Amino acid sequence: MEKTPNKKTEIILYADGACSGNPGPGGWAVILKHLSSAKTREFSGCEKQTTNNRMELTAVIRGLEAIRKRSKVTVVTDSQYLVKGMTEWIDNWIAKNWRTANKKPVKNVDLWQRLLELSGKHDVSWQWIEGHAGHPENERCDQLAVRATAEI
Q1: Close Cβ partners of 40 (under 8 Å, ≥ 6 residues apart)
Q2: 22: Cα separation from own chain's centroid
Q3: What would the pLDDT profile of 91-115 be if each residue is shown by its tens digit?
Q4: Rounded to a whole number, what is the distance in angstroms from the first to the last CA of the chain?
Q5: Catalytic sites, residue numbers
């Protein structure tokens, strides 16, 4: 009798960041949807002094950290900075020792490096969606991130 190969867990990771002032108090939020079990988890957090881009990156980092076993993860975000960073820019940054095309240090390099490490533990794809366009999970993440910002 043949064994059925183990299927990877499929997860959609919705993420968003918010900042009151830039820099200023910030919040991040994540929704993890496990497609096989229909299980959904949501969580959020905040920082006293940060930027919107740091919160966008932090949201995905926290989401990936919460996934315990190797999975197929689709990251859905309204941050073009995040998606372009991971799909277009990061290879050149690494090749240039974390420098931009203008030879300046990459901003948020600590978070990009952590994101790169965590995404290597999963099969990750990156999907950009338009923010504030009625996408239910994106709207919910935005609400959670804004609420987290207000908790500081």
Answers
A1: 31, 32, 33, 34
A2: 19
A3: 999 999 999 999 999 999 999 999 9
A4: 58
A5: 16-17, 56, 78, 132, 142
